[in-house]
Fold each of these.
Amino acid sequence: MQHVPDITVPAIDVEKIRKDFPLLQEKVYGLPLVYLDNAATTQKPQIVLDTLMHYYIHLNSNVHRGVHHLSQEATAAYEDSRKTVASFLNARKSEEIIFTKGTTDSINLVAYSFGRGEIKPGDVVLVSAMEHHSNIVPWQMMCEDRGAELKVIPMDENGELIMSAFTELLTDKVKIIALTYVSNSLGTVNPVRDIIAQAHARNIPVLLDAAQAVQHMPVDVQELDVDFLVFSGHKIYGPTGTGVLYGKEEWLDRLPPYQGGGDMIKTVTFAKTIYNVLPYKFEAGTPDISGAIALAAAIKYVQQIGVENIQAWEEQLVEYAAQQLQQIEGLRFIGNAKHRSGAISFLVDDIHPYDLGELLDKQGIAIRTGHHCAEPVMGFFCIPGTVRASFAMYTTFEDIDRLVAGIKKAAAMLR
Amino acid sequence: MTIKEKQDELISDFSFLENWMDKYEHIIQLGKELPLIDEKYKTPDHLIKGCQSQVWLHTDMQDGKLIFTADSDAVITKGLVSLMITVFSGHTPKEIAESEIYFIDAIGLSSHLSPTRSNGLLSMLKQVKLYAIAYEAKSQSQKNGKEL
Ligand SMILES: Cc1ncc(COP(=O)(O)O)c(C=O)c1O
């Protein structure tokens, strides 16, 4: 085992945390699991699993509809979860929190409603060169529909946005900017405050894809002054199928609804429907009640440990991983931003990422290979994909040592 | 050797390798030894669909027998292609079309490889059989004096 560098902040008790995650106790191929695919999805602490079970055993009932006891309990738990999310993001009001199926669903909602409400032919939507497909395709579809144009903020070889190019792209034709806070394929943390300030100087709203941010760093929507912010529950230790859209009240009030159905209406006649108020206007149909409640449990778990503490711990992990990986012969980083978080992408010589990933898997090490749903990023670097290691609060220095040893072994076989 | 004998030999080779790292080592070695395809055949119409890594496969007919050459950008994939070529190269289209392929399951490749990889292997198998059936149909129709 490698020598562990000076740990400046004993930020969290990682051994204690690991005991809260049943799946981390599992073995694969008879080996203790090294789980370094947290950017794809995180494991779930026991409290999240217990909350799901508790809901179905003690609370299960539909929300916002029943006069009976259970329905009121379920509604209260569901709406409490909204308050938990609102306070986690420091939203002004819990009505600014919409529950969705995930990041993808949240972005589709905004793209659709913003497109219908605000976009005219000739308008421009700005995204960045390092977006996940889910922050490209919904905008592309909307632009096609509305006769608008999608433009791209370029990046450089380090995987950092070229800010001078961004400033040049900012014309009065731009109606919205949709940008990732942290890149899932490169780990780059984007200068979102600067971007939001420049955009607001021209009255352009900004949507932040915070799918790779909220689990790694404190996010305060008022301090950011961001107009829309989205994330997925399953990447912040919550259940799959849950997600959040934060939107400033004035924007959410102004936009037309996304899907139609129950819950999102005030009155319905065949002649005309009056839509419900926020947040229900954007939550058509029976929501994922148990999921939202369990997501709140995950967020409380994160808050209990402290996002700042998680951030301090993970910064050391990323730094240590970068240091150790750098010493592997022939290894090169894909994305080398000064400010990064959560994930490190790399290649070794001309070894195909699938080959490396498969041999790591056989050593009990779960990483991700491929294009990470960001094909334009791979196109930019002219590579078929990368190997990506991504971290969570329960990642240890030993995990990284096993990764490094695993890569060395695999590379020796593949060279 | 018949296609069946070749498969039995591969199965026996692999049975001597104790764990999966050793089996991979062997597959990688076969990949490195795979005779390279002529660069001119590395074109989109020689690409096999369904492979996450890229595989190019080319067929030639020599003395009534099919000769396969191939390449891939991933070494493990190349090793798997090499297994396939070992089994099929040098047989008549009829033999290939009618062959029963069991070595993939018997070696345990279908259960141990990542799903994308084993799907790739299956589409490779399908492609080889398609080539064989096409050649077989062509030679049948020539025998019958008909144009294709
Ligand atoms: C930056 C980013 N945006 C969007 C998504 C899509 O998230 P989901 O599939 O949970 O909707 C991901 C997930 O990989 C991501 O990392």
Note: Helices of chain B lie at 3-15, 20-33, 75-88, 93-98, 103-107, 109-112, 115-143.
Amino acid sequence: MTSKKVILTGSFGVGKTSLFNQFIHQKFSDKYLTTIGVKVNKKTVESHGEEVSLLIWDIAGEVTQDKVPNSYFLGASGILYVVDLSRPLTFVNIKEDIEYLKDLLPGAKIKVVGNKKDLLTDTELAQAVKSIEIPVGTTTSAKTGENVEDLFLALTNEMME
Amino acid sequence: MTEFANMNYNRKSNYRQVILLDENGYIHDSCDSLFDSSQFTDKSIGNYFYFLASELPTIWASEANKISYNRMQTTQACLPGFYDFAFSKAVINGKRHILWEIFDYTNVYKEYIKIQQIKNEVSIHEQYLLRNKNQSVDGKPAHSENFFQSEYIAKQRKESDNLVYRLIHKEKEIGTAPAEAGLIKLNELKLHLKLMIEEIDQFVNQVKDDEFTDIYIKEVVDDYFNKEIPRHPDRIKLIYSDSLPDKVTVNKNVLTQIISLVCKDELNQIDYKSASLSLGLVQVNNDNNPILNIDYVEQLSSDINLNEDSAKRVIKLSILKSLVSTLGGRLISKYSTDNHLFGALISLPLKNC
Ligand SMILES: Nc1nc2c(ncn2[C@@H]2O[C@H](COP(=O)(O)OP(=O)(O)O)[C@@H](O)[C@H]2O)c(=O)[nH]1
Ligand SMILES: [Mg+2]
């Protein structure tokens, strides 16, 4: 079976752990518990009729990506760069961050994820998405589960192209 | 599976396990200090540890001889805490192997989480303050009502003598002060928390070095004091007990770090009357490992406000406590508001060579 390493990254408190838990365990908690290192879990999905095992890394959030230990990114095929749509300061560094990640992992697929969409009205959502300098791939809510499964499946399809 | 078991690897402190993996990811040998590896020998290790499924190919492909990953949380019940991993490549009998070192820093990283949690929540609150400040026209107090209601902090508050909470006891002030003042306070707090985290990281890395050498302990401690406290030669009285031999087998960096954590900050303060640091060695019966006792006592002036400033120091002590326990030692803190006393007695088992 093909395995792919996928990393959830972005600033702290944007919902990386929540997306991870929603995708792996279909669970959500309102409680904020800081992640200090790395947790890896596995989930098998199907892409183009083939089974793919996703090895998903939930890592501690850093304000900028160059602060994340390089070893975490080694061998990654997919990156989910998560921002909190309700906190603009979580996407002020997005341009530099994405460039940094592209340099580090030239072959990897990188997706920008706008999370916590449930906290915004449609107008606010459109406004937030427009203000992000890099096109947002998907907007999600780890709380309601909206688009979470689709996000991982879309990434898998891209990685398997 | 005997060689490593016989190594008696750090049996005293029991915080490190070494596992030798063969080219296919099967366990070849293990000292089993932290968990019984025999349950994982029938299949390649990646079937049990997802982290390894993900990383073994990368480690093989990497040009580096050693790769480290810090603060790992596994999904395996046999490793229920927080660990640092290091992987080194080795050729044994002409075959490629990977040496997997696991360092159990669970206690230490639990302290780390508390600090990081507060730091992140403070940062998020700061972001709201900044936004409100930019948005407010009339300079009204700007604060996020939700921040200090956060469940985590609410829980800290319930524990009456919780020191992390005491550190942020100025919450009301921060919450309702004009944005500027609140921001400055938050920034101070953030910086302080950042320093604490750096100290933990530094210590953890030094312990890992595991370089136990014979040192002339009095010279090392004298040196440290001369270098760190040249301007305050009389602030702390150094006492070497008669039991302390000239030479001691110890990790020098760890020793100086402990001394630094227990008394360095205080050197910059002027509000205490006197302090002493005593070092002695105890030989326990039926035990080959002698114990190094480091005793720090500080007599504070009666007029200083203990509650305010001491919170930071006591938090520091609780970090040190977890670090010392990782090394198989013990820390008893002495902290008395009534007697205006602050200090710690640290007992550290020395390496048996
Ligand atoms: N309303 C809402 N809250 C969320 C969502 N995702 C995460 N959160 C909350 O945001 C906080 C931080 O989430 P967490 O997953 O720990 O963020 P991380 O630091 O990026 O891992 C927690 O209190 C979560 O409950 C979401 O989609 N909607
Ligand atoms: Mg997290």
Note: Chain A has one domain: 2-160.
